[in-house]
Design goal:
Blueprint: H1 2-8, H2 12-27, E1 35-39, H3 47-51, H4 57-82, H5 92-96, E2 108-115, E3 122-129, H6 147-152, E4 185-191, E5 198-207, E6 212-218, E7 224-226, H7 231-240, H8 247-250, E8 260-265, H9 283-290, E9 298-302, E10 311-314, H10 317-322, E11 329-338, E12 346-354, H11 357-360, H12 364-371, H13 386-389, E13 392-396, E14 399-404, H14 406-410, E15 421-426, H15 432-438, H16 450-464, H17 467-478, H18 489-498, H19 500-508, E16 517-518, E17 561-566, E18 575-576, E19 583-588, E20 593-599, E21 615-617, E22 623-629, E23 632-637, E24 648-655, E25 680-681, E26 687-688, E27 694-703, E28 756-760, H20 762-765, H21 781-786, E29 793-796, E30 807-811, H22 815-823, H23 828-857, E31 860-861, E32 866-867, H24 868-877, H25 883-887, H26 890-896
Parallel strand pairs: 2-9, 13-15, 16-22, 19-27, 28-30
Antiparallel strand pairs: 1-6, 2-3, 3-8, 4-5, 4-8, 5-6, 5-7, 9-10, 11-12, 12-15, 13-14, 17-18, 17-20, 20-23, 21-24, 22-23, 24-27, 25-26, 29-30, 31-32
């Protein structure tokens, strides 16, 4: 019989062969019999309906057993009506607990066949039930896209009221990597409990070249047969079972059925490993996150393995946990959350926190089936574990209708407990309006709706205030590495005190502004040696020769300063302002203006030690930057605080000139002027020198605001020249500020505390070649997950989004640090010095990067599964090859190495 062969087929290729044989058989019967493929739902453009029903394979597959549960409940409902009872229930869960549902008579089974991973790695899944089934007159409900949902809406206790989902499996069947997947098949056979033994069947397949999903008919009618069905599947099971085991004793198999349904999908691409579906890895526990609390027991049977016990039962995640596994929990809390939504009202929330591995000891392996991470099985490459995808589950009648990933909990600051926390929110009593507004029709994702957003906001508030999670998070953070902090509070506060621009950035987010005077890039002077033990930056402010080269030159005084009306980049020919009145300059009220002047002042005129001048402007508080380079004096001017469109303000610029006769480096004052300028001879035989200041005038005319990205607070250096401020910091120096660094790590001027900083050594994380800790007493499993010799830091996110709330752990046995000390042969007396600079670099690189990323993106990157703290961790760790040479430059090595 063709239906039996399709039920027991091990691959899509076998299915194709059966159809070919059926076509050949019909062709021999004459023209009266022929296979016709009909479009699903009588819609020739049905691809969009089928391929938008689910976003993940397990959510799609779970629709099949849930439809079977509907069929079982409807069977018991009609049986109760037939004997005069008045059955009723407002939900599937309530129905299953009523006296008119006979759980002992219900059969619901998921059967796997195909090939085990080591034998071909092909998984077929069959869902079998003995529910109401479909009469031949109603069998077309299986191929109608919405018909089943319309009928189910008459009953409050049925789940599939949308009429979507049963065909969602098609997009995950067959070889989904092929451009045209011609081997996506789904087999269906059913008979009604009211017309037992009268079976109908069909085969649904994907026809991508036609952009169509089709089902099989013979001359436009469904194929039929009479009698019982399913016995061939039992016989296949019996034949594959090892003779050394007692089949009858170890397995539970049904009698051939005269009613119910069989639905099979071939070569199904689950996002779990394809090991035994009845076992403790892969399919089963992924399935239990989709079916959290099943009203019916579901038997899982795997025909692919020669195992003594190829079967198990599940009723979902919740009941599996409650069935003798609650000793794995650190705590369990039931919360009632007011969503602030009229349609959602209050929601019941269950928070489950599992114990950590160290506390569980040998029992840690039992916990993995509930909160396993990414599967390490060889056929599960790229597939995520149950916890990563479904840390928060929103359920209706025990079925997950939407979920949030592990990163949702991490984004709330629970980096240590997120991987071991499960949250279940129940929506069993949700009215149809609320369900439509809250969940997508495919029942596996949340909508971006006011109701969903209100719920998520209320959930975040509830979880952030959870004592259970907060206390355990703090306890686990305190256990990491060594108890002694890596950077003490005095060191942290003193660094901030010496570098106020860092403290200002961390407190306010205001970036460091470009220097007011930017020296040119030329010069060949050597950087001076450090006078103390601090590693200092040295900036060469020498000018270069008159042509912009690097050769030394004689200092000269400038002789002209003229505003540039039209600047021509890349050319020395600019249009100069020749009028007597001030040159107008348009300035946006929220941005800066660039004003340029032509001059013959040398590049280092404002910064050199001899024969240097100063620049005075009429509004110094608005002057942000000064650039003197190759005959151009460029000023960057911010708008006044009271700037309004149409308002004008004058800007006068004065370039002072010193007396060359007072300069000991000049033998002849005439040498202080360019060759084209001659100094007059004085009556006393000396020289009349011109030391009058050079002046120029502009008129700032304020115009409408530009894009906010140009505002002064957001602007950065234009990248030209060095960024060392040689005229003094715009902000007050440490000695000018009233506040001082407190020894509790609080910086008085900005009011934030240092983060929680600790360190780890290799004994905390290293294991030997056999996977055993090198120092069992100091070993920490959490540190071992986060560190190896190539890891510099691990950052746990802030629970309050501030710098102070971060937990930073520094690896003091990172290869980058230890290799530098050994290979550079650092003196013993300087090793602590090098380690301290490494620590400071890790601390301040990390927290400033975190501050910047949070300002830009928030504590998590929505819809990416990335937490800002994790991105910062990866970014800092990527610096490992270059970190030490950049914080300990070559010119310091001579004094700290042997």
């Amino acid at each position: 019989m063709y239906a039996e062969r399709l039920l027991t087929a091990d691959s899509p290729d076998e299915v194709r062969a059966v159809i070919d044989e059926l076509e050949e058989f019909l062709s021999k019967q004459g023209e009266a019999y022929e296979i016709y493929w009909m479009p699903l739902g009588s819609d020739e453009n049905n691809y969009s309906d089928v391929y938008t029903q689910a976003s993940s394979p397990m959510a799609a597959f779970s629709e099949l057993p849930l439809n079977a549960e509907d069929s079982l409940t409807l069977r018991f409902y009609e049986e109760a009506l037939a004997i005069g009872d008045d059955p009723s229930a407002s939900s599937m869960k309530e129905a299953a607990q009523s006296d008119w549902v006979d759980l002992d008579a219900a059969e619901l089974e998921i059967v796997a066949d195909g090939y085990a991973p080591q034998e071909g790695n092909l998984l077929n899944l069959t869902v079998r039930d003995n529910g109401k089934g479909k009469a031949r007159s109603e069998f077309d409900d299986f191929v109608g896209l919405h018909a089943p949902g319309l009928k189910k809406q008459e009953y409050d206790f049925l789940q599939g009221q949308y009429g979507m989902g049963s065909t969602a499996v098609m997009q995950f069947a067959g070889n989904i990597e092929e451009e045209y997947n011609e081997r996506a098949f789904k087999f269906i056979a059913s008979a009604s409990v009211h017309e037992p033994g009268e079976w109908s069947w069909t085969l649904i397949h994907d026809k991508p070249n036609k952009s169509q999903v089709e089902y099989l008919t013979v001359n436009g009618e469904f194929p039929i047969f009479d009698g019982t069905f399913g016995g061939a599947l039992t016989e296949k099971f019996r034949e594959s079972y090892p003779e050394k085991y007692d089949f009858e004793k170890n397995t539970t198999t049904p009698d051939p059925q005269n009613h119910g349904a069989f639905v099979k999908v071939y070569n199904y691409q689950t996002n779990a490993s394809r090991t035994m579906i009845s076992g403790n890895e892969g399919f089963r526990h992924k399935f239990e996150r989709a079916v959290v609390d099943s009203p019916y027991p579901i038997q899982l049977t795997d025909l692919r393995y020669n195992s003594k016990f190829p079967q198990s039962y599940t009723r979902g995640f919740r009941q599996e946990l409650e069935d003798g596994n609650e000793h794995l929990l650190e705590g369990k809390k039931h919360l009632t959350v007011d969503t602030g939504s009229e349609t959602l009202g209050e929601r019941d929330i269950t928070v489950l926190l599992f114990k950590d591995d160290d506390e569980l000891g040998d029992a840690a392996s039992e916990k993995s089936k509930f909160v396993s991470g990414t599967s390490t099985h060889k056929d599960a490459t790229g597939r995520t574990g149950v916890q990563k995808d479904h840390a928060v589950m929103l359920t209706i009648n025990g079925q997950t209708h939407g979920s949030k990933k592990e990163y949702f909990l991490k984004s709330l600051g629970y980096s240590k407990v997120a991987s071991e926390t499960v949250v279940i929110a129940e929506f069993d009593d949700l009215a149809n309006l609320g369900m439509v507004n809250m969940f997508s029709p495919s029942r596996d994702t949340l909508k971006d709706s006011p109701q969903a957003n209100k719920f998520l906001s209320a959930l975040e508030d509830a979880l952030e205030g959870s004592d259970l999670l907060t206390e355990e998070e703090e306890r686990r953070r305190a256990q990491r590495g060594n108890a002694e902090p890596a950077t003490d509070t005095d060191t942290f506060a003193e660094f901030i005190d010496r570098n106020p621009e860092v403290g200002n950035f961390m407190a306010t987010g205001e970036r460091i502004r470009a220097p007011r005077i930017r020296p040119s890039d030329g010069g060949n002077e050597s950087a001076p040696e450090s006078d103390d033990d601090n590693l200092s930056d040295h900036t060469d402010t020498s000018g270069g020769d008159e042509n912009g080269g690097d050769a030394p030159h004689a200092p000269k005084l400038p002789t002209f300063l003229v505003p540039i009306e039209e600047y021509n980049p890349g050319s020395e020919e600019h249009v100069l302002w020749e009028a007597d009145e001030p040159m107008p300059v348009e300035t946006p009220v929220n941005g800066s203006a660039t004003v340029r002047f032509a001059t013959d002042a040398q590049n280092d005129y404002l910064t050199r030690d001899v024969l240097s001048g100063t620049l005075e402007v009429s509004c110094p508080e608005q002057l942000r930057a000064i650039e003197l380079q190759d005959g151009l004096l460029t000023l960057t001017v911010d708008p006044a605080d009271d700037a309004d469109p149409g308002k004008e303000t004058s800007l006068s610029v004065e370039l002072t000139r010193p007396d060359p006769r007072d300069c000991s480096a000049i033998d002849d004052p005439t040498d202080a002027y360019p060759e084209c300028v001659e100094a007059d001879v004085a009556t006393d035989g000396g020289v009349n020198v011109d030391t009058a200041s050079l002046t120029a005038r502009c008129q700032l005319e304020y115009v409408e605001a530009t894009d906010s990205r140009d505002s002064p607070s957001e602007s950065e250096s234009d990248g030209e020249g060095d960024t060392t401020d040689t005229s003094g910091d715009d902000g007050a120096s440490a000695s000018d500020r009233e506040g001082t660094a407190g020894n509790d790590g609080v910086t008085d001027d900005w009011g934030f505390e240092m983060p929680d900083i600790a360190y780890v050594h290799e004994e905390n994380w290293r294991i030997n070649d056999d996977g055993e800790p090198i120092n069992p007493e100091e070993f920490n499993a959490d540190d071992a997950r986060n560190f190896n010799e190539h890891t510099l830091i691990h950052l746990d996110p802030s629970q309050d989004s501030t710098i102070s709330g971060l937990s930073l752990t520094i690896n003091m046995d990172a290869a980058a640090l230890r290799s530098f000390i050994v290979k550079r042969n650092v003196k013993d007396t300087w090793k602590e010095f090098v380690e301290q600079h490494y620590e400071l670099a890790m601390v301040f690189y990390t927290i400033t990067m975190y501050r910047d990323y949070v300002d830009e993106y928030g504590t998590s990157f929505d819809d990416t599964g990335l937490i800002t703290a994790e991105v910062v961790t990866q970014s800092i760790n990527a610096l490992a090859p270059t970190i030490m040479p950049t914080i300990i430059p070559d010119d310091q090595l001579d004094r700290i190495t042997e």
